């Protein structure tokens, strides 16, 4: 058995969750989770899946790997990370109902959908677990719930009680609102091409259309009967045939493969190592430097690619919180350091709102952002020092994980790396920012780079490459 397959001593939960075919019920799982009103409200307000779907999926998979496949210490760190993130997700939805991600019943539903997805995968493939197997799977599952701090009393007592719990929740609690319909019918039809698509990228529009149609039909077919009845979303014969073919066909194929091909990685670290190994080896061709004032285009790109984390074309406090969350997710910070970073970015948001929210709707649109930034920068040489400057300094001190007062190349890559930026471009940007060539970037060099990014008229300034080539 290879290191990428669950060890023979692993329990039924890891064996079931570790199979690649769990992906067939993954979208079904997301739909059931998001249909809970509290999850839908939190998703609408805080989630980045509209603007950054692949990054959001990568984070979810990485989190799942740490919870279910890593050792006790890594699981503990992941639980702490989730707790820090969830304590900030709270508010009031459009119907005036308060919500919080820390609600035990909401957390129980989100976790139970994962257990239910594993049992559904087996049932849909024609190989349902026997009662003893369900009991064993549920016992292992409840151990993870206990580690997450979910009270036992909000969970079904036994595996036999889960189907009634799911049926009752679907019929009495869930709602098929805008977020759910976006997941089912729109998200894949407008998703950007994944970075790893390579030479198939030109064919992405066609691939996307086919994948979206298949996934929507499969997901609707596989949802519980109570869903079909409550939301008048019938399981058509064609969709039922598709479901039967895919689930049973994948079962026949996967059970005949060697373990190294049948199972996903068994730890988050191995997954990250393989992700790094799959990165392309050469960056995209670099554009020629532009000599005209490139600030408007650069600021617009910054708004759409960096600020607008929720992808709704507007920026508000939730978008800046999402930016900080993404940084903190990479760095695994203690609570007090996270709080300082959140506070700095909230102060920047207040400056943006006061200066740019011309119509007073509590959000900033792209045209407002570009116009106000250019006006402020041209009018006042210290404009950035009062809002962005403190946020940038807090960002630097957060990324300086060893407290050396400098960012090394590894710390820089952790901070700015992602699916949008090629690793080679990050290396080049780091070298440009390292003005004295000592292999590290000081706080002043870091702040100067951000200043260049927002103020330089030409694309030849070092800071312009801060987040990758323009």
The value of Rg in angstroms is 24 Å
The number of helical segments is 23
Strand content: under 5%
Number of E strands: 6
Task: Explain what the structure shows.
- By secondary structure, this protein is mainly alpha-helical.
- It folds into 2 domains: 12-272, no CATH class; 295-465, EF-hand (Recoverin, domain 1).
- The protein has 23 helices and 6 strands.
- The chain has helices spanning 12-17, 26-34, 37-46, 53-68, 72-86, 104-124, 131-147, 162-172, 178-185, 187-190, 204-222, 225-230, 237-254, 259-262, 268-277, 295-307, 317-331, 335-356, 366-379, 388-399, 409-416, 423-433, 443-455, and strands at residues 90-92, 98-100, 314-315, 364-365, 406-407, 441-442.
- Strands 1-2 form a two-stranded antiparallel ribbon. The chain has a two-stranded antiparallel sheet with strand order 3-4.
- A hairpin with a 5-residue loop joins β1 and β2 (98-100).
- The protein is globular.
- The two termini are 45 Å apart.
Brief summary:
Helix content is 60%, strand content 3%. By secondary structure, it is mostly helical. It holds the Pfam family MPAB_Lcp_cat.
Features:
single chain; 470 residues; mainly alpha; Recoverin, domain 1; 2 domains; two-stranded antiparallel sheet; two-stranded antiparallel ribbon; 3% strand; globular; disordered N terminus; EF-hand-dom_pair; plasmid; EF_hand_dom; MPAB/Lcp_cat_dom
Topology:
Elements (H helix, E strand, L loop, with lengths): L11 H6 L8 H9 L2 H10 L6 H16 L3 H15 L3 E3 L5 E3 L3 H21 L6 H17 L14 H11 L5 H8 L1 H4 L13 H19 L2 H6 L6 H18 L4 H4 L5 H10 L17 H13 L6 E2 L1 H15 L3 H22 L7 E2 H14 L8 H12 L6 E2 L1 H8 L6 H11 L7 E2 H13 L15
Antiparallel strand pairs: 1-2, 3-4, 5-6
Helix pairs in contact: 2-6, 2-9, 4-5, 4-15, 6-7, 11-13, 16-19, 17-18, 18-20, 20-23, 21-22
Organism: Streptomyces goshikiensis
Pfam family, one: MPAB_Lcp_cat
InterPro entries: EF-hand-dom_pair, EF_Hand_1_Ca_BS, EF_hand_dom, MPAB/Lcp_cat_dom
């Amino acid at each position: 058995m290879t290191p990428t397959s669950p060890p023979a001593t692993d329990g039924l939960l890891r064996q079931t969750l570790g199979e690649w075919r769990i992906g067939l019920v993954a979208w079904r799982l997301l739909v059931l989770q998001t249909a809970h009103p509290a999850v839908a409200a939190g998703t609408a307000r805080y989630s980045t899946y509209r603007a950054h779907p692949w990054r959001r999926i990568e984070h979810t998979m990485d989190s799942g790997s740490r919870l279910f496949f890593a050792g006790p210490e890594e699981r503990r760190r992941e639980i702490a990370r989730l707790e820090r993130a969830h304590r900030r997700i709270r508010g009031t939805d459009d119907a005036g109902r308060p919500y919080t991600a820390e609600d035990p019943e909401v957390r129980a539903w989100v976790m139970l959908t994962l257990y239910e997805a594993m049992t559904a995968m087996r049932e849909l493939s024609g190989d349902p677990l026997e009662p003893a197997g369900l009991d064993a799977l549920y016992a292992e599952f409840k151990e993870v719930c206990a580690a997450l701090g979910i009270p036992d009393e909000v969970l079904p007592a036994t595996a036999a009680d889960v189907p009634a719990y799911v049926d009752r929740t679907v019929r009495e609690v869930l709602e098929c609102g805008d977020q759910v319909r976006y997941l089912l019918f729109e998200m894949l039809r407008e998703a950007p091409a994944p970075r790893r698509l390579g030479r198939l990228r030109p064919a992405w529009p066609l691939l996307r259309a086919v994948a979206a149609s298949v996934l929507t039909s499969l997901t609707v077919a596989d949802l519980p009967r109570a869903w079909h009845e409550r939301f008048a979303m019938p399981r058509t014969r064609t969709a039922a045939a598709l479901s039967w073919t895919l689930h049973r066909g994948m079962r026949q194929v996967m059970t005949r493969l060697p373990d190294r091909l049948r199972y996903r990685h068994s730890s988050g670290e191995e997954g990250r190592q393989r992700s790094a190994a799959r990165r392309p080896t050469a960056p995209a061709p670099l554009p020629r430097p532009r000599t005209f004032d490139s600030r408007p285009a650069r600021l617009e790109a910054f708004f759409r690619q960096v600020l607008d984390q929720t992808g709704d074309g507007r920026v508000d406090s939730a978008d800046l919180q999402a930016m900080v969350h993404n940084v903190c997710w990479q760095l695994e910070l203690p609570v007090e350091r996270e709080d300082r970073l959140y506070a700095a970015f909230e102060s920047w948001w207040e400056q943006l709102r006061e200066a740019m929210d011309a119509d007073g709707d509590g959000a900033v649109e792209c045209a407002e952002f570009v116009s106000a930034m250019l006006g402020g920068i041209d009018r006042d040489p210290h404009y950035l020092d009062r809002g962005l400057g403190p946020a940038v300094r807090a960002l630097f001190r957060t990324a300086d994980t060893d407290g050396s007062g400098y960012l090394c190349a590894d710390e820089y890559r952790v901070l700015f790396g992602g699916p949008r930026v090629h690793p080679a471009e990050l290396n080049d940007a780091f070298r440009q920012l390292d003005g004295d060539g000592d292999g590290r970037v000081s706080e002043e060099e870091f702040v100067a780079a951000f200043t260049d990014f927002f103020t330089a008229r030409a694309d030849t300034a070092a800071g312009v490459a801060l987040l990758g080539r323009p």
